[in-house]
Task: structure prediction
Amino acid sequence: MQVDVIKSNLEIVKATENDLITNRAWLEINLDNLEYNLHEIKKKIHQNTKIMAVVKANAYGHGAIEISKKLNSLGILDFAVATLSEGIELRKNGILGNILILGYTKIENLNYVEEYDLIQTIIDEEYAISLLQKLGKQKLKVHIKVNTGMNRLGVNSKNISLIKKLYEDSRIKILGIFTHLCVADSSQEEDVQFTKKQIMELETLIKSLEAQNIYVGKTHIQSSYGILNYPELECDYVRPGIILYGIHSEKNIKTRLPIDLKPVLTLKARVTSVRYLEPNSYISYGRTYRSKDKMKVATIAIGYADGYPRNLSGKDAKVCIHDTYVAIVGRICMDQLIVDVTELEDVKQGDIAILIGEDKRISMEEIAQKSSTITNEIASRMGERLKRITFDSLKSQSKEKRYDRNESY
Ligand SMILES: *Cc1c(COP(=O)(O)O)cnc(C)c1O
Result:
Protein backbone atom coordinates (compact mmCIF):
# COMPACT_ATOMS: atom_id res chain seq x y z
CA MET A 1 0.00 0.00 0.00
CA GLN A 2 1.29 3.49 -0.80
CA VAL A 3 0.97 6.13 1.89
CA ASP A 4 2.32 9.61 2.33
CA VAL A 5 5.24 9.77 4.67
CA ILE A 6 6.69 13.09 5.52
CA LYS A 7 10.45 13.39 5.39
CA SER A 8 12.52 15.33 7.91
CA ASN A 9 12.67 18.32 5.60
CA LEU A 10 8.89 18.24 5.25
CA GLU A 11 9.15 16.99 1.71
CA ILE A 12 6.41 14.46 1.11
CA VAL A 13 7.65 11.21 -0.27
CA LYS A 14 5.77 8.13 -1.26
CA ALA A 15 6.78 5.17 0.81
CA THR A 16 5.54 1.66 0.31
CA GLU A 17 5.03 1.21 4.02
CA ASN A 18 2.14 -0.31 5.85
CA ASP A 19 0.20 2.71 7.05
CA LEU A 20 -0.01 1.30 10.58
CA ILE A 21 3.53 2.62 10.97
CA THR A 22 2.47 6.24 10.80
CA ASN A 23 -0.87 5.77 12.49
CA ARG A 24 0.17 7.40 15.73
CA ALA A 25 3.82 8.21 16.54
CA TRP A 26 7.01 7.12 14.82
CA LEU A 27 10.71 7.73 14.25
CA GLU A 28 12.16 8.65 10.89
CA ILE A 29 15.75 7.49 10.57
CA ASN A 30 17.77 9.30 7.93
CA LEU A 31 20.59 7.01 6.86
CA ASP A 32 22.07 9.66 4.57
CA ASN A 33 22.74 11.70 7.69
CA LEU A 34 24.35 8.68 9.35
CA GLU A 35 26.68 8.44 6.36
CA TYR A 36 27.40 12.16 6.58
CA ASN A 37 28.32 11.90 10.27
CA LEU A 38 30.53 8.90 9.61
CA HIS A 39 32.45 10.88 7.00
CA GLU A 40 32.77 13.84 9.36
CA ILE A 41 34.16 11.55 12.09
CA LYS A 42 36.62 9.99 9.63
CA LYS A 43 37.98 13.47 8.91
CA LYS A 44 38.78 13.90 12.62
CA ILE A 45 40.74 10.68 13.17
CA HIS A 46 44.13 9.41 12.01
CA GLN A 47 44.30 7.64 8.70
CA ASN A 48 45.08 4.23 10.14
CA THR A 49 42.54 4.43 12.95
CA LYS A 50 39.35 2.48 12.39
CA ILE A 51 35.86 3.23 13.64
CA MET A 52 34.25 0.76 16.01
CA ALA A 53 30.63 1.89 15.81
CA VAL A 54 28.84 1.78 19.15
CA VAL A 55 25.36 0.42 18.45
CA LYS A 56 24.35 -0.59 21.99
CA ALA A 57 20.83 0.05 23.30
CA ASN A 58 19.28 -0.46 19.86
CA ALA A 59 21.79 1.98 18.34
CA TYR A 60 20.82 4.66 20.87
CA GLY A 61 17.18 4.09 20.01
CA HIS A 62 17.72 4.40 16.25
CA GLY A 63 17.29 0.70 15.41
CA ALA A 64 20.49 -1.35 15.67
CA ILE A 65 19.85 -3.60 12.69
CA GLU A 66 19.13 -0.93 10.08
CA ILE A 67 21.92 1.28 11.43
CA SER A 68 24.46 -1.56 11.45
CA LYS A 69 23.43 -2.75 7.98
CA LYS A 70 23.98 0.73 6.63
CA LEU A 71 27.34 0.96 8.40
CA ASN A 72 28.33 -2.43 6.95
CA SER A 73 27.47 -1.10 3.50
CA LEU A 74 29.74 1.88 4.18
CA GLY A 75 32.64 -0.39 5.04
CA ILE A 76 32.37 -0.44 8.81
CA LEU A 77 33.33 -3.88 10.08
CA ASP A 78 33.69 -3.24 13.80
CA PHE A 79 30.84 -2.79 16.26
CA ALA A 80 30.41 -2.49 20.01
CA VAL A 81 27.30 -3.57 21.91
CA ALA A 82 26.51 -3.65 25.62
CA THR A 83 25.16 -7.17 25.92
CA LEU A 84 25.35 -10.70 24.55
CA SER A 85 21.74 -10.51 23.32
CA GLU A 86 22.48 -7.35 21.36
CA GLY A 87 25.41 -9.09 19.69
CA ILE A 88 23.34 -12.17 18.83
CA GLU A 89 20.60 -9.98 17.36
CA LEU A 90 23.09 -8.33 15.02
CA ARG A 91 24.51 -11.67 13.87
CA LYS A 92 21.05 -13.18 13.35
CA ASN A 93 20.35 -10.26 11.04
CA GLY A 94 23.48 -10.78 8.99
CA ILE A 95 25.74 -8.06 10.35
CA LEU A 96 29.34 -8.73 9.32
CA GLY A 97 32.62 -8.00 11.07
CA ASN A 98 33.79 -7.87 14.66
CA ILE A 99 31.22 -7.38 17.41
CA LEU A 100 32.60 -6.55 20.84
CA ILE A 101 30.40 -7.03 23.91
CA LEU A 102 31.36 -4.23 26.29
CA GLY A 103 29.55 -5.62 29.33
CA TYR A 104 29.26 -8.73 31.49
CA THR A 105 28.37 -12.14 30.06
CA LYS A 106 27.80 -15.08 32.39
CA ILE A 107 30.65 -17.57 32.09
CA GLU A 108 28.02 -20.26 31.42
CA ASN A 109 26.87 -18.31 28.35
CA LEU A 110 30.27 -17.91 26.73
CA ASN A 111 29.39 -20.74 24.33
CA TYR A 112 27.05 -18.24 22.65
CA VAL A 113 29.91 -15.79 22.27
CA GLU A 114 31.73 -18.49 20.32
CA GLU A 115 28.68 -19.72 18.43
CA TYR A 116 27.84 -16.24 17.13
CA ASP A 117 31.48 -15.27 16.65
CA LEU A 118 31.36 -12.37 19.09
CA ILE A 119 34.13 -10.88 21.22
CA GLN A 120 33.81 -10.72 25.00
CA THR A 121 35.32 -8.01 27.19
CA ILE A 122 37.29 -9.19 30.20
CA ILE A 123 35.64 -6.77 32.55
CA ASP A 124 37.68 -7.16 35.77
CA GLU A 125 39.98 -9.35 37.86
CA GLU A 126 37.21 -11.64 39.09
CA TYR A 127 36.10 -12.27 35.52
CA ALA A 128 39.66 -12.90 34.38
CA ILE A 129 40.24 -15.44 37.13
CA SER A 130 36.93 -17.20 36.37
CA LEU A 131 37.97 -17.49 32.74
CA LEU A 132 41.36 -18.92 33.65
CA GLN A 133 39.67 -21.45 35.94
CA LYS A 134 36.62 -22.43 33.95
CA LEU A 135 37.39 -22.11 30.25
CA GLY A 136 37.39 -25.39 28.38
CA LYS A 137 39.35 -26.03 25.23
CA GLN A 138 37.48 -23.36 23.29
CA LYS A 139 39.27 -20.34 21.95
CA LEU A 140 37.46 -17.34 23.30
CA LYS A 141 37.96 -14.02 21.53
CA VAL A 142 38.32 -11.17 24.00
CA HIS A 143 39.41 -7.60 24.53
CA ILE A 144 40.80 -6.69 27.95
CA LYS A 145 39.26 -3.66 29.58
CA VAL A 146 41.59 -1.71 31.81
CA ASN A 147 40.39 0.47 34.66
CA THR A 148 42.27 3.76 34.61
CA GLY A 149 40.09 5.80 36.93
CA MET A 150 36.43 5.51 36.03
CA ASN A 151 36.06 2.60 38.46
CA ARG A 152 33.13 1.06 36.65
CA LEU A 153 34.69 -1.85 34.78
CA GLY A 154 38.20 -2.97 33.97
CA VAL A 155 41.23 -4.77 35.32
CA ASN A 156 43.48 -2.55 37.41
CA SER A 157 46.17 -1.12 35.16
CA LYS A 158 48.85 -2.06 37.72
CA ASN A 159 47.85 -5.71 37.71
CA ILE A 160 50.40 -6.65 35.06
CA SER A 161 50.98 -10.20 36.29
CA LEU A 162 47.33 -11.16 35.84
CA ILE A 163 47.11 -9.44 32.47
CA LYS A 164 50.26 -11.26 31.37
CA LYS A 165 48.75 -14.57 32.45
CA LEU A 166 45.75 -13.86 30.23
CA TYR A 167 47.96 -13.17 27.24
CA GLU A 168 49.88 -16.37 27.83
CA ASP A 169 46.81 -18.62 28.08
CA SER A 170 46.26 -20.43 24.78
CA ARG A 171 42.49 -20.75 25.32
CA ILE A 172 42.06 -17.00 25.31
CA LYS A 173 42.59 -15.11 22.09
CA ILE A 174 43.20 -11.50 23.07
CA LEU A 175 42.40 -9.27 20.13
CA GLY A 176 42.58 -5.96 21.92
CA ILE A 177 43.06 -3.90 25.06
CA PHE A 178 41.23 -0.71 25.93
CA THR A 179 40.09 1.76 28.54
CA HIS A 180 37.26 4.25 28.87
CA LEU A 181 37.59 7.95 29.70
CA CYS A 182 35.17 9.42 32.23
CA VAL A 183 35.60 13.19 31.71
CA ALA A 184 36.71 13.46 28.08
CA ASP A 185 33.84 15.88 27.42
CA SER A 186 35.17 18.45 29.89
CA SER A 187 37.59 21.22 28.98
CA GLN A 188 38.29 22.10 32.64
CA GLU A 189 41.99 21.92 33.36
CA GLU A 190 41.66 19.42 36.23
CA ASP A 191 39.56 17.13 34.07
CA VAL A 192 42.04 17.39 31.22
CA GLN A 193 44.84 16.41 33.59
CA PHE A 194 42.77 13.49 34.89
CA THR A 195 42.10 12.30 31.35
CA LYS A 196 45.77 12.56 30.41
CA LYS A 197 46.60 10.46 33.44
CA GLN A 198 44.05 7.84 32.34
CA ILE A 199 45.59 7.71 28.88
CA MET A 200 49.10 7.49 30.29
CA GLU A 201 48.16 4.60 32.58
CA LEU A 202 47.01 2.51 29.63
CA GLU A 203 50.06 3.49 27.59
CA THR A 204 52.41 2.57 30.43
CA LEU A 205 50.74 -0.81 30.80
CA ILE A 206 50.97 -1.47 27.06
CA LYS A 207 54.64 -0.49 26.99
CA SER A 208 55.54 -2.81 29.81
CA LEU A 209 53.65 -5.70 28.18
CA GLU A 210 55.41 -5.02 24.90
CA ALA A 211 58.74 -4.86 26.71
CA GLN A 212 58.02 -8.46 27.69
CA ASN A 213 57.48 -9.38 24.05
CA ILE A 214 53.71 -9.54 24.31
CA TYR A 215 51.73 -8.43 21.27
CA VAL A 216 48.85 -6.62 22.95
CA GLY A 217 46.43 -6.56 20.00
CA LYS A 218 44.31 -3.58 18.97
CA THR A 219 44.18 -0.58 21.25
CA HIS A 220 41.31 1.83 21.82
CA ILE A 221 40.43 4.60 24.23
CA GLN A 222 38.24 7.31 22.73
CA SER A 223 34.47 7.51 22.57
CA SER A 224 32.80 10.56 20.99
CA TYR A 225 34.34 13.25 23.18
CA GLY A 226 37.68 11.49 23.33
CA ILE A 227 37.79 11.85 19.55
CA LEU A 228 36.88 15.52 19.62
CA ASN A 229 39.00 16.60 22.61
CA TYR A 230 42.06 14.33 22.37
CA PRO A 231 42.71 14.20 18.61
CA GLU A 232 46.47 13.68 19.02
CA LEU A 233 45.83 10.20 20.42
CA GLU A 234 46.40 7.54 17.81
CA CYS A 235 44.95 4.14 18.62
CA ASP A 236 43.80 1.32 16.36
CA TYR A 237 40.16 2.12 17.01
CA VAL A 238 37.90 4.91 18.18
CA ARG A 239 34.47 4.07 19.64
CA PRO A 240 32.01 6.80 18.68
CA GLY A 241 28.41 6.47 19.81
CA ILE A 242 26.36 9.63 20.17
CA ILE A 243 28.09 11.68 17.42
CA LEU A 244 27.49 8.92 14.87
CA TYR A 245 23.81 9.67 15.35
CA GLY A 246 24.46 13.33 14.67
CA ILE A 247 23.87 14.54 18.19
CA HIS A 248 26.02 16.23 20.79
CA SER A 249 25.63 14.93 24.34
CA GLU A 250 24.67 18.38 25.54
CA LYS A 251 23.76 21.76 24.15
CA ASN A 252 26.59 24.30 23.68
CA ILE A 253 29.30 21.79 24.45
CA LYS A 254 32.76 23.05 23.50
CA THR A 255 35.26 20.67 21.93
CA ARG A 256 38.81 21.16 20.69
CA LEU A 257 37.85 19.86 17.27
CA PRO A 258 34.55 21.21 16.03
CA ILE A 259 32.41 18.77 14.09
CA ASP A 260 29.47 19.27 11.80
CA LEU A 261 26.73 16.77 12.55
CA LYS A 262 23.31 16.00 11.11
CA PRO A 263 20.78 14.33 13.40
CA VAL A 264 19.70 10.95 12.12
CA LEU A 265 16.47 10.75 14.11
CA THR A 266 13.22 12.69 13.78
CA LEU A 267 10.32 11.98 16.13
CA LYS A 268 6.80 12.59 14.81
CA ALA A 269 3.25 12.05 16.02
CA ARG A 270 -0.30 12.78 14.91
CA VAL A 271 -2.62 15.46 16.17
CA THR A 272 -5.57 13.51 17.49
CA SER A 273 -7.98 16.16 18.76
CA VAL A 274 -8.40 19.94 18.51
CA ARG A 275 -10.60 21.90 20.92
CA TYR A 276 -11.47 25.44 22.03
CA LEU A 277 -11.27 26.39 25.69
CA GLU A 278 -12.88 29.15 27.69
CA PRO A 279 -10.71 31.33 29.97
CA ASN A 280 -9.84 29.62 33.28
CA SER A 281 -9.92 26.11 31.86
CA TYR A 282 -7.51 23.52 33.22
CA ILE A 283 -5.35 21.33 31.02
CA SER A 284 -4.21 17.75 31.75
CA TYR A 285 -3.51 15.93 35.02
CA GLY A 286 -3.02 17.83 38.22
CA ARG A 287 -4.61 21.05 36.87
CA THR A 288 -1.12 22.52 36.68
CA TYR A 289 -2.04 24.70 33.70
CA ARG A 290 -4.94 27.18 33.65
CA SER A 291 -5.85 29.15 30.53
CA LYS A 292 -5.98 32.93 30.92
CA ASP A 293 -7.82 33.78 27.75
CA LYS A 294 -9.77 31.84 25.18
CA MET A 295 -7.49 29.27 23.71
CA LYS A 296 -7.26 26.51 21.13
CA VAL A 297 -5.38 23.34 22.05
CA ALA A 298 -4.37 20.18 20.20
CA THR A 299 -3.78 16.74 21.66
CA ILE A 300 -0.78 14.87 20.23
CA ALA A 301 -0.48 11.09 20.31
CA ILE A 302 2.83 10.79 22.12
CA GLY A 303 3.74 10.53 25.77
CA TYR A 304 6.33 9.48 28.28
CA ALA A 305 5.77 5.78 27.54
CA ASP A 306 7.27 6.57 24.13
CA GLY A 307 10.32 8.16 25.70
CA TYR A 308 9.22 11.77 25.48
CA PRO A 309 10.19 12.86 29.01
CA ARG A 310 7.43 13.67 31.47
CA ASN A 311 9.62 16.17 33.24
CA LEU A 312 9.41 18.46 30.20
CA SER A 313 5.98 19.42 31.54
CA GLY A 314 5.93 23.11 32.43
CA LYS A 315 9.36 23.73 30.82
CA ASP A 316 8.10 25.58 27.75
CA ALA A 317 9.12 22.73 25.46
CA LYS A 318 8.02 23.18 21.85
CA VAL A 319 6.72 20.96 19.10
CA CYS A 320 6.48 21.86 15.42
CA ILE A 321 3.18 21.76 13.55
CA HIS A 322 2.85 23.18 10.01
CA ASP A 323 6.33 24.75 10.33
CA THR A 324 5.25 26.66 13.46
CA TYR A 325 6.59 26.10 16.96
CA VAL A 326 3.91 25.68 19.61
CA ALA A 327 4.28 25.12 23.35
CA ILE A 328 3.35 22.06 25.37
CA VAL A 329 0.79 22.98 28.03
CA GLY A 330 -0.02 21.01 31.18
CA ARG A 331 1.43 17.68 32.20
CA ILE A 332 2.73 15.23 29.64
CA CYS A 333 0.77 11.97 29.94
CA MET A 334 1.77 8.37 29.26
CA ASP A 335 0.46 8.31 25.68
CA GLN A 336 -0.50 11.90 24.93
CA LEU A 337 0.38 15.53 25.42
CA ILE A 338 -1.38 18.81 24.72
CA VAL A 339 -0.10 21.89 22.89
CA ASP A 340 -1.29 25.47 22.57
CA VAL A 341 -2.34 26.01 18.95
CA THR A 342 -4.27 29.25 19.47
CA GLU A 343 -2.15 31.00 16.83
CA LEU A 344 -2.30 28.16 14.36
CA GLU A 345 -4.95 28.17 11.67
CA ASP A 346 -6.16 25.00 9.99
CA VAL A 347 -4.74 22.56 12.48
CA LYS A 348 -6.84 19.42 12.41
CA GLN A 349 -7.09 15.82 13.49
CA GLY A 350 -4.51 13.68 11.67
CA ASP A 351 -1.99 16.47 11.13
CA ILE A 352 1.64 15.69 11.87
CA ALA A 353 3.67 17.22 14.69
CA ILE A 354 7.47 17.00 14.88
CA LEU A 355 8.66 16.56 18.45
CA ILE A 356 12.38 16.06 17.94
CA GLY A 357 14.13 17.12 14.77
CA GLU A 358 16.85 19.07 13.08
CA ASP A 359 15.70 22.53 14.06
CA LYS A 360 17.37 24.05 17.12
CA ARG A 361 14.10 24.67 18.95
CA ILE A 362 13.20 21.00 18.89
CA SER A 363 16.70 19.51 18.71
CA MET A 364 17.47 16.56 20.93
CA GLU A 365 20.07 18.76 22.67
CA GLU A 366 17.33 21.26 23.54
CA ILE A 367 14.97 18.55 24.78
CA ALA A 368 17.75 16.97 26.87
CA GLN A 369 18.70 20.28 28.45
CA LYS A 370 15.10 21.11 29.34
CA SER A 371 14.63 17.73 30.98
CA SER A 372 17.97 17.98 32.83
CA THR A 373 19.67 15.07 31.15
CA ILE A 374 21.93 14.25 28.21
CA THR A 375 20.84 13.34 24.70
CA ASN A 376 22.28 9.85 25.13
CA GLU A 377 19.49 9.13 27.62
CA ILE A 378 16.71 10.70 25.53
CA ALA A 379 17.76 8.82 22.37
CA SER A 380 18.31 5.45 23.99
CA ARG A 381 14.92 5.61 25.71
CA MET A 382 12.89 6.15 22.55
CA GLY A 383 10.08 3.69 23.09
CA GLU A 384 9.45 0.29 21.64
CA ARG A 385 5.98 1.44 20.62
CA LEU A 386 7.52 3.80 18.06
CA LYS A 387 8.00 2.30 14.64
CA ARG A 388 11.20 3.22 12.84
CA ILE A 389 11.05 4.28 9.21
CA THR A 390 14.46 4.38 7.58
CA PHE A 391 15.27 6.62 4.63
CA ASP A 392 18.23 5.92 2.44
CA SER A 393 18.20 7.96 -0.73
CA LEU A 394 21.34 6.18 -1.95
CA LYS A 395 19.76 2.76 -2.03
CA SER A 396 17.97 3.41 -5.26
CA GLN A 397 20.91 5.10 -6.95
CA SER A 398 23.61 3.64 -9.15
CA LYS A 399 27.18 3.06 -7.98
CA GLU A 400 28.50 6.04 -10.01
CA LYS A 401 26.05 8.35 -8.37
CA ARG A 402 27.04 7.05 -4.96
CA TYR A 403 30.66 7.69 -5.71
CA ASP A 404 29.89 11.26 -6.74
CA ARG A 405 28.15 11.86 -3.47
CA ASN A 406 31.05 10.48 -1.48
CA GLU A 407 33.40 12.77 -3.35
CA SER A 408 31.52 15.80 -2.24
CA TYR A 409 32.16 15.20 1.48
C1 LIG B 1 28.73 3.86 25.36
C2 LIG B 1 30.19 3.68 25.22
C3 LIG B 1 30.88 4.34 24.18
C4 LIG B 1 30.24 5.36 23.27
O1 LIG B 1 30.09 6.55 23.99
P1 LIG B 1 29.62 7.93 23.30
O2 LIG B 1 29.89 8.94 24.35
O3 LIG B 1 28.19 7.78 22.98
O4 LIG B 1 30.46 8.11 22.08
C5 LIG B 1 32.22 4.03 24.01
N1 LIG B 1 32.85 3.17 24.85
C6 LIG B 1 32.23 2.55 25.87
C7 LIG B 1 32.99 1.64 26.76
C8 LIG B 1 30.87 2.81 26.11
O5 LIG B 1 30.26 2.22 27.14
Notes: Confidence is low (pLDDT under 50) at residues 1-17, 396-409.
